[in-house]
Design a protein that fits this description.
The radius of gyration is 21 Å and the shape is elongated. It is mostly helical. It has 13 helices and two strands.
Length: 245
């Protein structure tokens, strides 16, 4: 079935609510339903997506919990301003990243946020990481080295994410850990847009090694500085690739 909204797809009655959430979320992020616009009614969505009433209601509930829509009495379900969207949610972040008109601004914001919290997270980990947490960081770095040697972009993305997420996890701070979605969203972006990213990945390994060495040495200041250097390197490369301003 081709939808009349411009984001046509087929959805069988067996499709679950999370798939309808994804379908609508992407459409909203792309601007098919602009801020302030009322979504199709419940019966219209049931017909449009070929799903049942309970699926539609659950999808709208989830979108509402993410701040993407709100239900107004006598008006229906309305798309909210982007400032209210939960951008720490992986799905919301992915939807916005798929929207070319907003991805660059979001990438810049993520980089700015990373410079605020990741160096501090690395300093905390240097002070408090236990042996198992250190092993997780070491293992991720070893995987980064192997990926660099093999020129394996997919493995490099996974290992780079694992390294940074292991550091966030080792802080033991649930608020800092909540930023994992933002990191997940940014760390792989260069691979899809910059042909020379493997070269950059290899060049940035020394900064990651410095982070690991500082954490091993329990040197919080050095860990903070090394993480700052790592993120600054990535930001510079993203600017050169025209991904961020």
């Amino acid at each position: 079935m081709k939808s009349s909204t411009g984001f046509g797809t087929e959805m069988s009655k067996e499709k679950r609510a999370d798939e309808l959430v994804d379908w609508l979320g992407l459409a909203i992020a792309k601007g098919d339903y602009p801020v302030g616009q009322v979504l199709p009614t419940e019966p219209e969505l049931m017909a449009l997506a070929e799903v049942g009433r309970s699926t539609v209601r659950e999808a709208i509930r989830v979108l509402g919990s993410l701040g993407v829509v709100e239900t107004a009495p006598r008006r229906g379900t309305v798309v909210t301003d982007r400032g209210r969207w939960n951008l720490l949610n992986r799905d919301v972040l992915r939807w916005v990243m798929a929207s070319r008109g907003h991805a660059a601004d979001l990438m810049s914001a993520i980089n700015e946020a990373r410079l605020v919290f990741e160096p501090s997270a690395a300093a905390l980990v240097a002070d408090r990481a236990d042996r198992m947490q250190l092993i997780a960081i070491e293992t991720a770095f070893a995987r980064m080295e192997v990926a660099a040697q093999n020129g394996d972009a997919e493995a490099a993305i996974a290992a780079d994410r694992a390294f940074h997420l292991a550091i966030l996890s080792a802080t033991g701070n649930p608020i800092l850990e909540a930023f994992d979605a933002a990191i997940d969203g940014v760390l792989g972006i260069l691979f899809s847009v910059a042909a020379n990213h493997m070269e950059n990945f290899r060049a940035n390994l020394a900064n990651h090694q410095a982070i690991l060495d500082a954490i091993r040495a329990r040197d919080a200041d050095a860990a903070r500085a090394a993480m700052t250097a790592t993120i600054t390197f990535t930001t510079t490369r993203m600017k050169e690739a025209g991904i961020v301003a």
